[in-house]
Design brief:
With about 350 residues, the chain is an all-alpha fold. The chain contains 15 helices and no strands.
């Protein structure tokens, strides 16, 4: 448990005609384009090395089962939406679960087409909640709380997968050490985030704003909202029942992702061992996080798939067929998410972002 904008202003074309923003966005756009080209080159090399004919032959085996490719992700998204639904502070989420599900699909589409490190999807969630009538502080608090529980769930899932890798296949000690260090760093970061929320997530910003005249205007405008968000987050951490339910929803989302991997392996005529599917999913989740700076993890996702398949004794062409199947599913859900987003009046986004 594709290419696009790097921030919520770009997602909704806010201030497209403003020349003042261009110098700030241009360096990031250039880097993004370089990473995209690099990802495309890596993707092309992997396809060429794996033999397109063999990959095509495996994909033809899908046949009538093609509609099944899109179904498991519905379960993943439902669990993720429930995780977010339980992440609202105070009296819980005032919005129906079906609306949170729609928001999740739209935000995930944006997250897929941008470098995930930009967190454009999380910013979009805040905007969508505000359009639904929620206050800025409650919106921010729910997104931060959900980000916390999904990170904790992800760490547990990756940890289970790593243990499975160590007991199921033989890999180089250096790789084991690198993965262990990576997971340890992620655990420390998650623990630090919890402590930071206890102290006050926006407290350092408020402290800095009071000492820098350049930020005085920002503090005067947003201090009450930031302080209210911090208070909501501290209260939410004390609500262990909903915190655990949010964590459970996201963890089940990662497990449903392993179910999808098992289905893909099965319809491609490869290993239908559940442990193999778990290892593939856990590995690819880790690869996604480590290559979050690459738009849509293009190329890096495929390279990670080839690596884990080789450890499981599967061929490179089967790995690329599996990766392409996931891309097909991803594109379909991105289209659905963008379709949902297209129905939101642009003027409302402009009003909230101004």
């Amino acid at each position: 448990m594709p290419e696009g904008p790097v921030c919520i202003q770009e997602v909704h074309a806010v201030d497209e005609g403003s020349r003042a923003l261009e110098p700030k966005l241009e360096p990031r756009s250039t880097l993004r384009h370089v990473l995209l080209v690099g990802g495309l080159a890596l993707f092309a090399i992997l396809v060429w090395k794996s033999s397109p004919d063999l990959i095509g032959g495996l994909l033809l085996k899908v046949g009538w089962a093609l509609p099944l490719v899109f179904l498991p992700h519905a379960l993943v998204t439902t669990f993720e939406a429930s995780g977010w639904w339980f992440a609202f502070p105070q009296n819980g989420c005032p919005i129906k679960l079906i609306e949170i599900l729609r928001f999740s699909v739209a935000a995930k589409a944006i997250q897929h087409v941008t470098p995930s490190i930009s967190q454009a999807g999380e910013l979009l969630k805040i905007q969508l909640l505000r359009l639904a009538g929620m206050s800025a502080d409650a919106s921010m608090a729910s997104v931060v709380a959900a980000k916390t529980t999904i990170t904790l769930a992800e760490l547990l899932f990756i940890g289970i997968g790593l243990v499975g890798v160590l007991t199921y296949v033989t890999i180089e000690p250096l790789l084991v050490m690198s993965l262990s260090i990576g997971i340890l760093v992620m655990c420390l970061a998650a623990a630090g985030l919890l402590v930071w929320q206890r102290i006050g997530l926006f407290r350092p910003l408020v402290w800095l704003s009071r000492r820098l005249s350049l930020l005085t205007t920002f503090l005067d405008r947003h201090e009450q909202s930031l302080s209210s968000t911090d208070r909501m987050l501290r209260e939410y951490l004390d609500e262990r029942k909903r915190f655990c339910l949010s964590w459970l929803g996201y963890f089940l989302g990662w497990v449903a992702g392993a179910l999808e991997a098992w289905l893909f392996l099965s319809i491609l005529g490869l290993s239908n061992d559940p442990m193999s599917a778990l290892l593939v999913q856990a590995w690819l989740v880790l690869v996604t996080r480590l290559t979050a700076f690459v738009p849509a993890n293009l190329g890096t996702h495929e390279a990670g798939t080839v690596m884990i398949f080789s450890l499981l004794g599967l061929t490179a062409d089967s790995a690329m067929a599996f990766a392409l199947l996931r891309r097909v599913r991803q594109i379909a859900w991105i289209a659905l998410g963008l379709g949902i987003l297209a129905k939101v009046p642009r003027a409302q986004f402009l009003r909230l972002s101004s």
